[in-house]
Amino acid sequence: MPKTLHIDFVSDVTCPWCAVGLGALEAALRNVAPDIQAELRFQPFELNPQMGPEGQDAFEHLNQKYGSTREQQAQGREAIRQRGAAVGFEFSREGRSRVWNTFDAHRLLHWAEREDPAKQVALKKALLKACHTDGQNPSDPDLLVRLAGEVGLDATRARAIVESDEFAAETRARERLYTDAGIHSVPAIIIDNKHLISGGQPVEVFERALRQIAGAAPAETASA
Description:
Glutaredoxin; globular
C-alpha cells in the first residue's frame, strides 16, 4: 500500500531558492512514486514584509541586505539559474529588476488551498514563473487575478479577495505559526509535522529523506 506523506512547503514566491527547492522536491516525489505519495500544501513566509507597494530595485535591495556587488549578484544569479535548469525551472538570465511585497499573493494562495489543493499547487507554480521567469510583479492585482483564473480558480472571487483584506488575519496567523516554530529562512519543507528539510536541496537529498521517513527510519535534518 502506498505511503502518503503530508508536506508543508514554507516559502515566498519572490524567493529563487524556493523555485529550485520545489522543482527538486517534485522530481524526488516522481522518483519515489507510486510507493510514496504526498499531500503538498504551501505555507506563507514573507522575505520582505515591510516592502512598500512601489517595491525596490533588486540590486539596491540585495546590496543593502548582503553588501553584495553587481558582479557577485550576477554570479549568484547564474548559479541559481543552473540549479533551476537542472530541475526544469527556467530563470531569466537578467534576474528580477525589482523586489516586491508578496502578502496579497499569500492571501490568494491561502484561499486557493481552501478551494482545491491541486489548484493551490498550480497557482504557486504560476506565481514563481511570473516572478522569476517573466520578471512580473507578484503584487500586481491584475496579474494575481489573471493567474488565478488561468489555473481554474474563480477570477471574480479572486478579484474580490485581492481588493479586500480577506484572509489577511488567517495568513498572518500562519506566518506566525512557522516563525514562532523557528523558521527564519526559506524554503523550509516540513514532512508529517516533524521532519524539517531546509533550503533548496538537490533531488537526491529529498529522495533519501522521503524514503527514510516513509519507511519510519530515522531521517536526518538537512540544511543548505
